[in-house]
Amino acid sequence: AGFFFGIGITNHLLTVLIFPALAFILIINRPKLKTARIIVLSLVLILSYGLNLYLPLRSTKNPSHRWTEVASLTKVTDHLNGAQYRHRMFSLNLSEYQESFRIFFQLYFGEFSPFLLLFIPVGFYFLFKKDRKSLIFIGLLITINFFYNLNYYIPHEIRVYYLPASLMLALVIGFGIFKVISPIPSGVLRKIICLVLAFTPLVYNMTRESRRWHFKAYDIGENILRILPKEAVFFVEDDTQLFSLSYQLKTLAKRPDIRVINRVGTLFEDFYGFRRDKDMRDIQVRKTFEVFFI
Hints:
Blueprint: H1 2-11, H2 19-29, H3 35-49, H4 54-59, H5 73-80, H6 94-117, H7 119-130, H8 132-150, H9 163-181, H10 187-209, H11 216-227, E1 233-236, H12 239-251, E2 259-262, H13 274-277, E3 292-293
Parallel strand pairs: 1-2
Antiparallel strand pairs: 1-3
Helix pairs in contact: 1-3, 2-8, 6-10, 7-8, 7-9, 8-9, 11-12
């Protein structure tokens, strides 16, 4: 468990939010856990988290894709604790809180369909009666995840941060469905109802969320390269354009004649010396999407 938790943190800091719920389960189920076992778990966690040492080592080889400078201990620490995005956390104004709430409700009405949401209170009631340990575990995960996301203003990608809460609510919905259909005497009918309910969100979201013909991210980079004159210098700010051009130029090796520059020098050359001269804790992202080329 310690190993996989450490691996999870190397992938994304959001994993840390799961720790209070995991600690609760560990304390409840293993109240007399020996100190030696705790030390072993901690060492294994630290060892797996040590995979981040790869970042400064790889940085010395001048990789083509580098989100930030990690050549020093301070910059590695800033990268690992999300210093670049800290100004977005716990500093929201009223309109930003309203936007966060709007995204939250929009997300869950779209994720599960309004019909399945009716099973959530039933599922919580079932857990309260039958398994209060699981109720506290799920409640901790949902509450902490929701509180953090509500205070982190990054509206264009915050939806993915609700994944832990979404998974827990899916379990609660499952418990609610079990509570409702368990009195039905026919086992075949119960299975049919479960299948219908399981496919409800799939059918509900199929046409609305399908990205089968969604090529915007690819096309925007290709269209930019198509209109740029030979040996152009292109200044880019928007992430969509930046990532698309990075794929077109570095992965597909298109248009080697042009030069792309982005403000903080993350995926292309550090033209302004930003990574070299600035501390990641000082980054303040400007809310503008001006793009121009020379």
